[in-house]
Design goal:
Layout lengths: L10 H5 L12 H12 E5 L5 H15 L1 H4 L3 H8 L4 H9 L3 E8 L2 E9 L3 E7 L8 H15 L4 E6 L4 H6 L3 E2 L4 E2 L5 E8 L2 E2 L13 E2 L2
Parallel strand pairs: 4-5
Antiparallel strand pairs: 1-2, 2-3, 3-4, 5-8, 6-8, 7-8, 9-10
């Protein structure tokens, strides 16, 4: 079993072995981060989540995406105009879109969505839980869903704010930067996915449960 507390790359590895007892008290930052991840749940969204999920997305854009909207009220209003409770309900109800929420207790702290084509369309976290592994956990779940749907890649359009995060998780940019929702650029990105080995004669990776397509 691989354990890497600083990266918290494998939630199951960390949470499955009484993680706090294995982390020195001196490493307070890691203990707090692991505690939050292990108390977090990710589930498919329901239409009843639409209002709260929308609020998380809108707060995330307004409070975390300064590099993109640069606090310009006109730019921000235009960006937020598409992120309404009614639109969130329609995305959740759309059979070609898989919407998930990350929760801590009863509160929604993150929202993600992916189309059946493997295009990630949402990955937003509450400003209250930034840098605590929520975005990565959402991304992992969306990529797993893409594999279930038969996709061998995930694609997305990244904001200026999120670009470094996606690069750090294995996405690569393709094509030149494009005009973004705000004053920054947007970036088309793609990632090759590891797919469970079920095909005949796969090229098997070091982990025999996975193959490289």
């Amino acid at each position: 079993m691989r354990t890497s507390y600083l990266g918290v790359a494998e939630t199951r590895d960390v949470c499955g072995m009484a993680p706090l007892s294995h982390i020195p008290y001196s490493d307070l930052r890691t203990r707090v981060r692991v505690s939050i991840i292990c108390s977090m749940q990710i589930r498919e969204a329901s239409v009843e989540d639409a209002v709260e999920a929308c609020q998380v997305v809108r707060r995330s854009i307004a409070e975390l995406c300064h590099a993109d909207h640069q606090d310009d009220p006109i730019v921000l209003e235009k960006w937020l105009s598409n992120n309404t409770s009614n639109n969130m309900r329609s995305w959740i109800a759309d059979p070609d879109t898989y919407v998930i929420v990350a929760t801590e207790g009863a509160a929604i702290i993150g929202v993600g969505a992916i189309a059946s084509s493997g295009e990630i369309t949402l990955n937003y976290v509450s400003p209250d839980t930034r840098f605590r592994g929520v975005s990565k956990a959402i991304l992992n779940r969306l990529e797993a869903r893409a594999i279930q749907l038969g996709n061998d890649t995930c694609t997305l359009t990244s904001t200026e704010t999120a670009r470094r995060f996606y690069l750090s998780t294995g996405y690569v940019q393709f094509g030149p930067p494009e005009p973004g929702m705000g004053k920054g650029s947007s970036y088309r990105m793609v990632k090759k996915l590891f797919i469970p080995c079920k095909a005949a004669n796969p090229r098997v990776s070091r982990n025999s449960d996975w193959c490289l397509n």
